[in-house]
Amino acid sequence: RIVYVNGSYLPEEDAKISIFDRGFLMADGVYEVTSVLDGKLLDFGGHAARLERSLAELDMACPVTMDELLAIHRELLEKNAIIDGMVYLQITRGSAGDRDFAFPDPAVVPSSIVLFTQAKPGLADNPAAKTGIRVITVPDIRWGRRDIKTVQLLYPSMGKMMAKKAGVDDAWMVEDGFVTEGTSNNAYIVKGNKIITRQLGTEILHGITRAAVLRFAREAQMEVEERSFTVDEAKTADEAFITSASAFVMPVVEIDGAALGNGAPGKVAVRLREIYLDESRKSAI
Ligand code: PMP
């Protein structure tokens, strides 16, 4: 695989980052994941805009322009012959050499940028979309700025492991009795025909897929309510689903052992998945 690191395209085994990089020592970095279908990037503009916001919130400099970033994405897709898959991008604050809690001066120490691709043949035909996934709930003990897409993913990884240990697919995180989001996705329930998902704030990541799905739902005259919901409300909902750049819209059929509806993917989730895939393929670049 050919990867990109600080201006160079290299075989992955030749790509190097300093052990003093603050991304490695302090999780001082941000990332984005953009899906690829038929060789094209889904919602690159949305991911680029969120990246700029994450960087600005952390006073981190961007080593490339957004036009350059798009060109790097495309170059990697071509070099690695990616049809379906994803591009991972990470920017970390670099390092002045020694380990130090204070940020280095960005005029002196450039941030590091790394991109790589992962091929995922048949990404849009994930069989899990036919059966739906099962989730457990776990306490949300992450930091308070979940709206910044940082590489601090230890707790979400632990959440996935708790789910795995419980024999299910994923975990929804809960704070003060309300569901925040999934370990790597936004969470939704459906009551009647109404789609309910937590309002934006610092408690959740502002999903690029979330924004697109809510827009498509409203355009299709579906009712959307952005508010917090409890685990009990979720367990007695008609349907549930998650969204993320790589899972698209994925039905959830069980929460903490309670089956939703008849235990099969709900009609709203199935329809939204179709709309999302159709529309995002159309606007892919
Ligand atoms: N919430 C969290 C915590 C995530 O990690 C992700 C995926 N990166 C999402 C939501 C979904 O965001 P997106 O639709 O932009 O992939």
Can you tell me about this structure?
There is one protein chain. α6 packs across α8. The protein has helices spanning 22-26, 44-57, 66-79, 128-131, 154-165, 208-219, 231-235, 267-282; strands at 2-5, 8-11, 29-37, 40-41, 85-92, 112-119, 133-139, 170-175, 178-182, 186-191, 194-197, 223-226, 239-244, 248-255, 258-259. The protein folds into 2 domains: 2-123, D-amino Acid Aminotransferase, Chain A, domain 1 (2-Layer Sandwich), CATH 3.30.470.10; 128-282, D-amino Acid Aminotransferase, Chain A, domain 2 (Alpha-Beta Barrel). The strands form 2 sheets. Strands 7, 8, 9, 10, 11, 12, 13, 14 and 15 form a 9-stranded mixed beta sheet that branches. The chain has a 6-stranded antiparallel beta sheet with strand order 2-1-6-5-3-4. It is globular, with a radius of gyration of 19 Å. Helix content is 29%, strand content 29%. With 285 residues, the protein is an alpha+beta fold. β1 and β2 form a beta hairpin. The structure holds 4'-deoxy-4'-aminopyridoxal-5'-phosphate. The site of 4'-deoxy-4'-aminopyridoxal-5'-phosphate has 13 residues, from α6 and β13.
Helices and strands, with pairings:
Layout: E1 2-5, E2 8-11, H1 22-26, E3 29-37, E4 40-41, H2 44-57, H3 66-79, E5 85-92, E6 112-119, H4 128-131, E7 133-139, H5 154-165, E8 170-175, E9 178-182, E10 186-191, E11 194-197, H6 208-219, E12 223-226, H7 231-235, E13 239-244, E14 248-255, E15 258-259, H8 267-282
Parallel strand pairs: 7-8, 7-14, 11-12
Antiparallel strand pairs: 1-2, 1-6, 3-4, 3-5, 5-6, 8-9, 10-11, 10-13, 13-14, 14-15
4'-deoxy-4'-aminopyridoxal-5'-phosphate is lined by residues 33, 181, 184-186, 205, 207-210, 243-245.
Catalytic activity: L-leucine + 2-oxoglutarate = 4-methyl-2-oxopentanoate + L-glutamate; L-valine + 2-oxoglutarate = 3-methyl-2-oxobutanoate + L-glutamate; L-isoleucine + 2-oxoglutarate = (S)-3-methyl-2-oxopentanoate + L-glutamate
Cofactor: pyridoxal 5'-phosphate
Protein name: Probable branched-chain-amino-acid aminotransferase
